[in-house]
Amino acid sequence: MIEFSVNVAEVKEYIKGLVEAPGKYFSMIRYNVRESVGRYLSELMEAELTFYIGRERYERSGGGEVNYRNGGYNRRFTLKGIGAVVVNVPRDRSSKFKTSVLPRSRQYEDQIREDMGLMFLTGVSTRTLSLISHRLLGRSLSHNEVSKANLALTEGVEKWRNRDLSKELVKYMFLDGVNFDMRIGGSVEKVAVLVAIGVTEGGQKLVLGLQSGDKESASCWREFIRDLKGRGLDGYKVKLGIMDGLAGLEKVFQEEFSGAKTQRCQVHVARNVLAKVTKKHKKEVADDLRSIFYASSKE
Question: Would you say the pTM of this structure is higher than 0.85?
């Protein structure tokens, strides 16, 4: 039996070092954890190969088609909260064994990809994510890796943007064109996006669609509205369209929803009126407009 002895001087030195530089010991702990996790995953894949081949290491074959272990290769894989671990992926001689412990062609787990997507949605750029990835994940990610991780967001958005609308009983629609800053090539440009928000018979608001296009173009609006109808929006149930004075939009809406009425958006009406009022009278006129908008009757 091996005995370890530690004297008082060594204990004092250890405590002194811990007080002066606690971060060094935390780094050692993190390294040991990563090393242990790497060994655990490697052993798990080794057990998986054993089950696949049907016998333990150095155990003789019982006949039939024979397959053998064929060494392995080291691979790095990043885990959330742990960082990059080194694992040994075993191989068989027939090259048919595929481990299910770690996903193929992935260098980090799905949770990290989801976290990167969430940070990207909150406004963190791909360049910034790449710069802070080592601190957050224990491994540096290139711009390309961050961009590829964000592709999953694009797939999700496209699925939502093309979803079925046949079960949505939309009674009112708000239509407007909004400018967003978008990165195109190497520069950030203003891009117009057509937006449709519906209000159901139960009073619930929902975004029906988003599509880039010229908000001043009647043909773009027609294409956008027909896309909504093509996804199942029932035009006969739409009774009112609320919009601003965009050229051609009101005419297109009336043609596509023949049984609906149109109304100017209160916000745009107020802006247009206040733009022609002197600064001295703006508050008074704004209060009067608000009283008109929220009046209980026309009288």
Answer: no
